[in-house]
Design brief:
The protein is an all-beta fold. It contains no helices and ten strands.
């Protein structure tokens, strides 16, 4: 199993980003997937999940600004983030599983992509 995140960077408050998670080594179309994030000094927080039917799930804390999606033909999952806030600054990880987090440590994680929101 290999998961490779990309798309992070430095963005001004109010900006947008699309993160990608390229998957290989397993049947992606059958997998449930997670986006999680870890801010400096904080635990690994579950942000969003998508199941193999395309049903989506979000943490209450993200206030409707995040959109998770998947493109099975490219074995890729996405996280689109609008209206970025400084508190969104974190390393964003993808994982295999629906509710992966620090308290629910799933088996397969990517290396993460850094998102920094700063003016």
């Amino acid at each position: 199993v290999q998961l490779v995140e990309s798309g992070g960077g430095v963005v001004q408050p109010g900006g947008s980003l699309r993160l990608s998670c390229a998957a290989s080594g397993f049947t992606f179309s059958r997998a449930t997937m997670t986006w999680a994030r870890q801010a400096p000094g904080k635990g690994l927080e579950w942000v969003s999940g998508i199941d193999n039917n395309g049903d989506t799930y979000y943490a209450d804390s993200i206030e409707g600004r995040f959109t998770i999606s998947r493109y099975n033909a490219k074995n890729t999952m996405y996280l689109h983030i609008d209206d970025l806030k400084p508190e969104d600054s974190a390393v964003y990880y993808c994982a295999v599983g629906l509710y992966c987090s620090g308290s629910n440590p799933c088996n397969h994680w990517g290396q993460g992509t850094q998102v920094t929101v700063s003016s």
